[in-house]
Amino acid sequence: MRQMIIAGNWKMNKTITEAKVLVSELKEELNGAEAEVVFCPSTLVVSSVKEELKGTDIKIGAQNMYFEESGAFTGETSPLMLKDLGVNYVILGHSERRNIFGESNELINKKVVKAFETEITPILCVGESLEVRKSGKEVSFVSEQIEKCLVEVKDEQVKNMVIAYEPIWAIGTGETATSEQAEDMCKEIRNLIEKLYNTDTASTVRIQYGGSVKPANAKEILSMPNIDGALVGGAALKKDFIDIVKAI
Ligand code: PGA
Q1: Is 93 in the pocket of ligand 1 (CB under 6 A)?
Q2: What is the pLDDT of residues 182-208, one digit of tens each?
Q3: Report field, pTM of the whole predicted structure over 0.85
Q4: Which of 157, 208, 224, 242 fits as disulfide partner to 183, beta carbons 3.0 to 4.6 Å?
Q5: Range 95-104 contact pairs with CB under 8 angstroms and sequence separation of 24 or more
């Protein structure tokens, strides 16, 4: 039985002061939820949020990291620094990282491998653009992303990771994939994991949907058999996040 996981990707929002207010609005209601709940604030805000979450079972995730531990990599964040902060998860390969900052599948693969080595659980994001979906090639596109990002990742590691399917055309646009579209792709991803690894790994790995998840559509999306949670952007910055977690 896979435990649902709802992660809030705060992106580049919330100063420390604002983050403390948000955490105080959310934490009582979310502590002890049936789903695993993860807050992913900006790296600069992680330690303050962690402090505010003391005594709750809410986990902390980062939004990115580099694959080297230290050295001359100006502006990057070391996995060891994240580990030291007590981070449980790290979002890797988000479409904004891929499209705005030019991250390739090869780079993301190095980060995924390093995350496991550091014992931080990766939330690997994949998803197609509107152009790819219109051409009907979304399954092969997403499959290629997964295969390339999982090079040298072992089945025991895949069992523990999270894959987030986020169609780019549904991120921050208010346009959600239908629950059938989301379920179809998450099922394809699970089948691919079975092909690349084995049945046990495929039935254990958790697959989230992300892209304009809100209280109004959460229940339907989260009731799909191959969807094990959500990666939430805009709605994670307000009390709506409570309703999404409680939609399960
Ligand atoms: P959104 O973002 O919920 O605002 O569409 C999701 C994401 O980018 O993870």
Answers
A1: no
A2: 999 999 999 999 999 999 999 999 999
A3: yes
A4: 224
A5: 95/125, 95/127, 95/166, 95/168, 95/171, 96/11, 96/171, 97/64, 99/168
